[in-house]
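Researcher: Next sequence.
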Amino acid sequence: MVSNVLINDNAVKTTQILESDVAEIGCLNPSSKKPTVFGLWRCSTDVQDQERQVIALKEAGATRIFGDKITGTSDFDSRPELTRCLEEMQSGDLLIISELSRLSRSFLGMVNEVSKLLERGIQIKTLDNRLDTTAMPKEITMLIVSILGYAASQELAQIKTRTAEGRAVAKSRGVKFGRKRAYTESQVATVMEMRGRGLGYRNIAKSMGMSISMIRRILNQNEK
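Model: Next structure:
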């Protein structure tokens, strides 16, 4: 009778020890954390496009959303929110984007960034249903990324070509590009006349109500 009590008591203690060990291991194991769903948007200046992307990302389950207002050709150094997103993501997390070109419109940039994310154990899903790394092997993923990256690069090249052609046509019609001049031809003539009389930049700027840098710019553009 006594031996049975001792055996049962030891069994209870053993069970309690095992349960506490399992709980402790679970707390120390980082892989036990619930994956975070990240959302990434990118647009140039269209506010409506930004809002549309953010709404779609939330509906897809993204709880951490980052985005930059910048062109797709910009490098990663000029996309601070993208950099923050990449730094915050951990193995097991999921990145959702509307389309892969939101990550990069460069062929090499797209392939490199997707490869780095997969190596870190981060999954990628696009809302246009062209890519879902949770449902395909890495080999198929990289093949799709290569095709999409090539297509994005070609599209970007065509946009640049059309833009250059449009600028050339506009210039042939007398359209001027760049910053609008903040001074008149009469002011230019006055500045040139004052400089011809030997007045310094500071005195000319004070008389004209302009900054010294503007006086320098006027003289640099008009002195022969």
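Model: The chain is about 55% helix and 10% strand. The mean pLDDT is 77.
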